[in-house]
Amino acid sequence: MTDWHLDQDLLDRYDRGDLDTGRVMAVEAHMLACPHCRFRVHVDVAWTTGNWAIVYDAVHAPRVGPAQRLLTRLGLPEHRVRLLTATPALRWSWLLATAAVLGLAVLAAVFSRDGTDRAGLLFLVVAPILPVVAVSGAYGPPADPMYEITGTAPAAGPALVLWRATAVIGAAVATAGFAALLLPAAGWYAAAWLLPALLLCTGTLALATSVPLPLAAGTLGGLWLAGVLGVTGFRHEPAVPLVFGPAAQLSYSLAAALAAIVLIRRRRRFDPGESR
Amino acid sequence: MTTVSIRRLGKRYGATTALDAVDLEIGTGVTGLLGPNGAGKSTLLRCLATALAPDTGSLRVHGFDPAVQHERVEVRRRIGYLPQNPGLYPNFTAYDLLDYVAVLKEITDTGARRAEVRRVLEEVELTDRAKTKVRKLSGGMRQRLGLAQALLGEPELVILDEPTVGLDPEQRMLFRALVSRIGEHRTVLLSTHQTEDVGALCERVVVMRGGRVIFDGSPRELAGVAEGQVWLSAEPPQGNAAYWRNADGLYRTLGARPAGGEAARPSIEDGYLLLLDSEATTAGAATGVAPTAGAATGVAPTAGAATGAVTTAGTAAPDAAGATTAPGVIR
Closest residue of B to A90, CA-based? Predict the structure, then answer.
């Protein structure tokens, strides 16, 4: 605190921005030490508050990543992009697990001694299950610790479940698709797992209108594995045409469409506030 | 003004009755739900928060019925809910988490959403912690963040399930001050089993046990339930009366007067304990078990307690100046 204070003319020129840099620095240095002069400076509260808000948000608001920019360019509204990109961010564990399993499958294919057949079949059988595992963590307990808060928000309900499921299925399919490209002599079967994956995902969601999501995912994933092993005995020759041939793919499409109808008709069951 | 209207609400989990024909009207201010574990407090709050559908009865929040799908959305637009285990994502920063919940609460405009996040952070005094990850916040701060997410969108009804559990005294005091401010213009319904919370915060207290409402009145009226039944004595009482030794080395006895006992001013906890005791007594009487302290102490035993149908006026309680206040309702 000092007994000397800025004269009014100097303060007015400071307010108007008429001072050179050296004088501005001198005035501000004085004001730092002199509350009396500090409070004589005109303050535009609205301007200060507005700027403070801008600075605060710039420092604290979530960073916009490449995925968010891409989805925004594709035309999705900002709030929807926020929901989609936040969802996989909750689930690094399954994304890493998916990548690890696929990485191992690719390594097995590359280094297998008896050719790529068995490794390719392993990939085809495992890949459809990965999106289902992702879906099982998309909504509800125990995967989502904030389930009660999420489930009682106005945006809760079937739409949120389907948006979240889409986000995680997209991430899992992209990972599996990338792994398929790395398979040696991948051929047509690099994409043969996609329709079974679609069926298992829609089937899981449809079944989840009656039982908890993880149970639905476990049941259908288990049935898929048991079915493939039961039919083929894990031998490549009968398995690929039987389980992944054109007739099988057609039946997967029809079954997926049926599951989608069930899902649409029973979608309200995803709301925790709905009577059972 | 009535915010919440509950009529004959019932909920069962298998063979267990969680809610048994609950009737309540709740308006602006802070209302406390008090009761032991398993009393049905959380089930009632979850039904109100639309996290759970009741089996029987009806529920209205601001006139909207959560059983009807499109009205349920209207209810959700008007409530803020802090569950007992909010499970806030540990790797989110406080700002990210609130921004995410704000999207779920349909605040879709980016500018409006950020202004709302800043507002609630300031309201719960976490403005300087916006960049801190949830896992690095103290228990009290995490609970305030939970409260902040409940306040997003300025809900008219705020539902808090055991919000002060696990907080140290300083954090609890801060949390109470926040809730008290919020309750000035909104309806706040909080569950607790801490009678201190009720005394510090609530204008009205509803005591539940076994899925039923057994008392509805002011905290002072709840304390009044123990009027004339709280004693201080130098020696412990004989028999099986409930008593404990206080900080002054005197024995505080509830129920019949012990030898050498002097009457003491009843606390909310005294009233609550005697109320639960009288409830046990009433239930016991209905099943042929001999009544204990409750019946002997003059707390009105409610014959209807066995069925939850009959309502009996409670005892009048003297206030701080010695005047008599209106009685609470023991059901």
Answer: B89
